[in-house]
Structure prediction request, 354 residues.
Amino acid sequence: MAAWEENVRKVIPYIPGEQPVRTDIIKLNTNENPYPPSPKALEILQNIDGRILRKYPDPEAKELVQELAGYYSVNPEQIFVGVGSDDVLAMSFLTFFNGRKPILFPDITYSFYDVWADLYRIPYERQPLDDKFEIRTEDYKKECGGIVLPNPNAPTGVEKRLMELEEIIAANRDVIVIIDEAYIDFGGESAVRLLPRYDNLLVVQTFSKSRSLAGMRIGYAFGNEKLIKYLNDAKYSFNSYTMNTVTTAMGAAAVRDDVYFRETIDKIISTREWTKKELIRLGFAFPDSKSNFIFASHAKCPASKMFEALKAHGIYVRYFDKPRINNYLRITIGTDQEMKSLIEFLEQFLGENV
Ligand code: PMP
Prediction:
């Protein structure tokens, strides 16, 4: 090892789901939305006057922040925006988790949390989900340096009731509790309405799933004004211009098009419910999902085997070779046609292999 390597900040990076170059596949592996973004957002892209790109963007992304503030009935000063919710979460870890006590999150959860904790040298303790993949409230009622919980959880899709989350937030008023609501629009109940009661609460959401804009990278957080100011202070000390001009305008247009947003979500929810019934018919079991994916296992066929067979057939789902979940497939909800193809293939495959 070279001497300089001793002083390198070493981390084992997060590995995102595969983004294959091939376009002839059914891509159900990264929880993207199968439908295009709002036509109103695409109009912005088509009509952009390239000359505005000469100038720096608005560091406060005011157009987007105003639009979100109106939509969610909060003050603009209660909103932080970033380059996807990954950026928002990373900045939140950096800003709020500076104590010596460990932060808490589930053992089965979004696998970026421990990567950020390692990157920033934040101590952490994983709290095991119960055997139904539920977050146990009592595990989060102890001294800690902060809490991060996704709701619904990923990759399980399981929603925790808002009342129980509130119990956790109320029991931890001396630290920041982050609720990661990447998948909340697919049927969960948002913690946004708890904001007036708790100054230790940060709610993080994204345009990547329900608003079909994963490729633009827009995430945001709601918190009280003081919390958001601390977040912005850290962000402006890092990079003032995280939100570019085009992204900000497209995001604002997407929020304005509420009709399209609701229509898209309704379609995904109804496809999800159809897929659940079909998976049960084929002998799969899964915790009930309130997200745009289903975390399913089959008693008679190993998940790794189905994963490989699906991939060879051009259907990509996600498989995690990790303790407790290595017999599960995380299947993103695609279009009706995509899910029909998935079910047809699985039916045939299980018929021949179990
Ligand atoms: N939180 C959770 C639970 C996720 O699954 C994801 C998607 N990988 C994110 C946050 C980040 O999403 P994005 O950065 O696209 O907003």
Notes: The chain has two domains: 21-36+259-353, 39-256.
